[in-house]
Amino acid sequence: MRRMIFILSGWTLISMFFLYGMFLVAVAYAGRSSQEIFDYLNHRLYGHTKLEFVFNPIIDFARLAHDDIPKSARMGMINKMQAARYPERNIIPASKSVLVFSDKSVKQYATISEAALHAPSGAVVEISAGDYTEAQAVWKQKEITIRGIGGPVRLFAGKKSAEGKAIWVFRTGKASISGIGFFDAKVHDMNGAGVRAEKGDFSFDNVHFENNESGILTTAAVGTLTVDRSTFINNGNGDGYSHAIYAGKIDLLVVTRSVFYNTIVGHHIKSRAASSFVQDSKFYDELGLVSYELNFPNGGEVFVLNNYLEQNNYNENSVMLSYGEEGLLHKVNTLTVNKSTFRNVASGGTFVRTVIDSDKSIIENSRFMGNGIIDSRSKLQHSANNIWVGNLLLWKNTYFADNQYKPALEQQKLELLRNQYCGECSVLAGETGAFGIFSVATPR
């Protein structure tokens, strides 16, 4: 037995040195990042259970030893970002009132919390443009419409929250919110949201979330969540568990015509919904601190249509779109990607990853810019009419039809293609724009 253990230990050491040597050769001569090489090795080992048992722990250890961006440097970036997130704002509180319209009357309240307390179900709440520091509210109506009028309405959390959860908490019912900005939500549990939706159906139009630990956070009791023409900037706590949008195991998530920018370590969108539609939106990662751009950890019916997604250097997670990695929990588990552009600035990574046993993945009419892999393991796979600008490392077990592959281009050409494919890509220039580009609602 001792001799066998000695032989196995010797074999393990030899394997470690061999893998390490191959890794150094690949990094030096293939121009790949260390994490990219590790991703490739993990993929090649997949399905070989005995080899996985021996080599995966070695690869995991090597990942820690050869992180392209040292953890101390990454944490320094995060700490610097966090220090600037909650500045001492010179806010002039809004002096205008909050009007509540119902079938029977029009009432005026001095604060948003009073309006939330007294507004009847079915009311329309109009908040005048301005900055509000006493904005925390719990909404319990079965149906409510809330809109900013006359210009941007900006709600600053300061050090306060509703129920220790968010700036606004919606207990139940159907709510429509437009023309409101949520800033600086921070709570003891480190998941302070701009809006926390606990039960019902919710619609956000022309809404802004900035510097919150979470942007929009839902529980599993929510039915539908719809977000249109909205912006999400610098949300996330930095711990990887808070995101710009987190949708629990709800029925439907729809995100359209929106912009996501520099989510801190978390995901731009994490959705456990049975059905998720993400369309006509842009996802930016200027600082390289975003984890997944799009994450659908429990599968479901997912459509990613006509979007622009980019991944910068320094990411702890090199995957841009991840599907099903926490287990498939829905009856239908399909992923469709169409007319979307993926741009990877890092030296390597994964554009799209789907897990084994998912029903179907379709990737069509899309562009992949930079270096990376497509890691698709669905039962039925189809790929057609895609353009690859960069180096294709691996696209395995996928049916190909009319895909075009072009050699890696110079950075300048990539920038030209970026502008051509995604239009004006600066969120600060804004289509739905950085805050202050709200459309102005007309008072009743």
Provide an overview of this structure.
This protein has 444 residues and is of the alpha/beta class. The chain folds into two domains: 2-68; 111-422, Pectate Lyase C-like (3 Solenoid), CATH 2.160.20. Helix 2 (34-45) runs antiparallel to helix 3.
Q: How would you summarize what this structure contains?
A:
By secondary structure, the protein is an alpha/beta fold.
CATH architecture of the largest domain: 3 Solenoid
Helix proportion range:
10-25%
Distance between the termini: 85 Å
Helix count from the secondary structure assignment: 6
* CATH fold annotation of the largest domain: Pectate Lyase C-like
Number of domains: 2
- Strand-pairing-aware structural class: alpha/beta
- Sum up the overall morphology in one term: elongated
Proportion of residues in extended strands: 35-45%
Write down how many β-strands occur, each being a DSSP E stretch of 2 or more residues. Answer: 35
For the largest beta-sheet, the strand count, sense and barrel status come to:
24 strands, mixed
**Alpha carbon gyration radius:** 24 Å
Q: How is the quaternary structure best described?
A: single chain
What CATH first level of the largest domain would be assigned?
Answer: Mainly Beta
Mean pLDDT: 78
Q: What are the segments in which pLDDT stays under 50 over at least 5 consecutive residues? A: 4-8, 27-32, 393-401, 406-444
List keywords for this structure.
444 residues; alpha/beta; Pectate Lyase C-like; 2 domains; 24-stranded mixed beta sheet; 11-stranded parallel beta sheet; 6 helices; 20% helix; elongated; disordered C terminus
